Amino acid sequence: MHPLITPEALADALSARSATVVLDVRWRLGGPPGRQDYEVSHVPGAVYLDLDTELSAPPGAGGRHPLPDPERLQEVLRAAGVREGAQVVAYDAGDGSVAARVWWLLRWAGFGEVAVLDGGFAAWEAAGLPVTAEVPAPLAGDAAGDVVVRPGQMPVLDADGAATLAQDGVLLDARAAARYRGETEPVDPKAGHIPGALNAPTTGHVGVDGRWLGPEELAARFAGLGVSGDVAVGAYCGSGVTASSVVLALEVAGITSAEKPAALYAGSWSNWCALDREVATGG
Q1: What is the DSSP letter of 196?
Q2: Does the predicted TM-score (pTM) go above 0.85?
Q3: How far is CA 254 from CA 2, 152, 172, 218, in A?
Q4: What is the set of active-site residues?
């Protein structure tokens, strides 16, 4: 399954009553909760999953959004109706940076048929497609999904691995340029970036219309950062969420593949700060 799907293609799949599970993962750094938006309007049949409580473990030394416990993730996905052989589509409010976390998590869990809605809920609405406020009931028993979570199917970096990759390969920082340079830090206790990392903000993956750039445009962007198919590459951000979209963008660009994906520093800057590692500033 291609990692991106258009609103029109998703609508066709839902009209055909294919085995498609839609996950709404709208979320804002600092709130308010995305569930409020979901309860007002969402893609028909979509199930809301909360990034903080259902798609991450509790915050701690591992970071603000550590990877979830596999058993807990399996429970969450089954209650949402995720079954073996189905396809899953995740969407957020727009640029796909949060939905990419779901894409990455499912791939990490061994489930390959997953995509991000290109342009998110905003693109769905702009296309004039139907919306609803009806909230589906959680599934249980025979109606629930049967997905089996098999963790470890995507490469994950720890702090030492990220530090090494920043020197020996390419480590991309997905945060905004001001946070990368250390000019501001609204969330974590230290400002700056991992020494040797290069800045590749997630906002650069999408065009002015909120849709993802095409493979050639993305490849050119990454080439400008020295990323090519023969260079080891990984990504991080504030807490390992939006960096997932860098992993996705590299695959769309054809630089990496489903068989050889980029690595993710899951703990990211929040874990780096907790470990009191060396910090670089400036551009």
Answers
A1: T
A2: yes
A3: 12, 22, 17, 9
A4: 237
